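Dear colleague,

Thank you for sharing your sequence with our group. We've completed the structure prediction you requested, and as agreed, I am returning the results in plain text so they can be pasted directly into your records. Please verify that the sequence below matches your submission; if there's any discrepancy, let me know and we will rerun it promptly.
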Amino acid sequence: MSEININKSLLNKEIGRRVREMREYYEFTREKLAEYADISVQFLASIETGQKSMTTHTLYKISKALNVSTDYLINGHSFTSGTSKFNLMLETLSEDEKLLAEHLLQIYLRGLSLRELSTVQKFHFEETENNT
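Please find the predicted structure tokens below.
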């Protein structure tokens, strides 16, 4: 029985650490994340320190507020183990939101390509002008 409590305690600490890391990554204060997740600042502090566990509903609200999957908060797949921060953010989106994100990314990448093309054309124009 005590082994289960130890494992639960360790799990709470690991989940809390990941919540804190993601909060700090987004540069949220505890107050701001608590507001986004609709929980008290004191409860969030207890979660981050591993002193308290949370319901699945609270886990869901925190994951949405942090734009990460509940799986990341529970299991802690690291960003370097094949799951990028970008993918973690995408996991929280609905299918419609994913389509919109894909469309916005395509526009952004097209803009980068045009900017690079413009730079190359400008360089080529300057080279031609200098050679004449």
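Summary note from our side: Residues 31 and 41 are 6 Å apart (CA to CA).

Kind regards,
the structure core
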